[in-house]
């Protein structure tokens, strides 16, 4: 691990990190560069840029000044050394896994041969449904295999690693149950196995936790969520924390350490260094070939969102904590999962690694059958029934029917998603208005609105 002190996600960095003046007009707000292509002054310059011997913007699929600013800013907030921003969180995960665990990483010459099987990923079984779809279906089609393991059993991760394993993947705060893995423990296991640990930090944002400081090698965001915070644009980012070194085991990472024709018969680690090689492969190969590029407009939306990250997250967390506490005293609720609750299995990790809070996604298990669940969800008015998180607006989702509807029965069981599971993304409205909405929905679905009486009864039963 580098001993360098890594930067904090400070309020100043949220507003200023990564700025470099590229205009004589001195705008205070960085301009949005809406240009598909960039002009060269000579054919010589164009040739050098296209051959990737000189850095330059060529065509906005692989980068633009506005997107580059977002990359620098998120890299700094996440205490990383660089980043690539793409069209969505899903694209960020897909391209990162292809670069690390794709077929070309398994053959000595760093090229994809059809007769050589692709790599293997060890991933948390308590994960966003889209990531499960990606690994179970589309990446499986590309030959990448996956083992789903319990994020709370570090030894299971060590046991799942095979000689083909090239990545471990976990969420800093799990979706939908807001459970917290022991990131330093998983990082130690990954380091021993010499496999990079990828942490999806979407639900936390760097304001609540910086996984790079806990041992993560790559940090991924769906910037659609808390980084943007306004629910207007989709975006994704992958950050290199600067701790993964392909040259420690060059034979294991030929896609970075072998000379390939694609990159001028020079190994990527020679051209871009240990900590530029992975990002360069993601950008210059996978983003270039598949094309899930981030629009400058969307990058601007996210940059604007990041300026208020700390202020927003504080409100999100306090609202979620208040609602968790009240819901846990309601007779209609069998169980509330949020690490802020006393007695929650993740409370100790929350205290150790998340001093500012554990975010605003929480889940409940409703006490009642499917019709009660349906009526409760349909009765909410302030909470939008929508598959998003991190918006200013509060949202409710039924994971079994929505975000996690394609999971196999085994993965759904491992993820503890039932028909009674209801997920909330608590927004930034007045918390009393949110509580009133929940109370009227409980009443409308057959539960008395007098939860105070219920909580009194529960407390009396305890003494
Ligand atoms: C939403 C989400 C994603 C996917 O991001 P998109 O921007 O929707 O593609 C990935 N991981 C987590 C934890 C998410 O919540």
Report on the structure:
Belongs to the trans-sulfuration enzymes family. With 463 residues, the protein is an alpha/beta fold. The strands form two sheets. A seven-stranded mixed beta sheet has the order 1-7-6-5-4-2-3, with helices on both faces. The protein has a five-stranded mixed beta sheet with strand order 8-9-12-11-10, covered by helices on one side. Strand 4 (165-171), helix 7 and strand 5 (197-200) form a beta-alpha-beta unit. It is globular, with a radius of gyration of 23 Å. The termini are far apart. It is 38% helix and 12% strand. The longest helix is centred in the last third of the chain and has 20 residues, at 309-328. The protein has two domains: 18-305, 3-Layer(aba) Sandwich (Aspartate Aminotransferase, domain 2), CATH 3.40.640.10; 309-462, Aspartate Aminotransferase, domain 1, CATH 3.90.1150. Helix 6 runs parallel beside helix 7 (183-193) and helix 15 packs across helix 17 (431-444). The structure holds pyridoxal-5'-phosphate. Pyridoxal-5'-phosphate (PLP) binds next to helix 4 and helix 5.
Name the features.
463 residues; alpha/beta; Aspartate Aminotransferase, domain 2; Aspartate Aminotransferase, domain 1; 7-stranded mixed beta sheet; 5-stranded mixed beta sheet; 38% helix; globular; binds pyridoxal-5'-phosphate
Query: Which value, in Å, is the CA radius of gyration?
Result: 23 Å
Task: Find the CATH topology of the largest domain.
Answer: Aspartate Aminotransferase, domain 2
**First-to-last CA distance:** 50 Å
Unreliable segments of 5+ consecutive residues: 449-463
Q: Could you spell the SSE succession in H and E letters?
A: HHHEHEHEHEHEHEEHHHHHEHEHEEHEHH
Number of folding domains? 2
How would a crystallographer describe the biggest sheet? 7 strands, mixed
Highest CATH level, the class of the largest domain: Alpha Beta
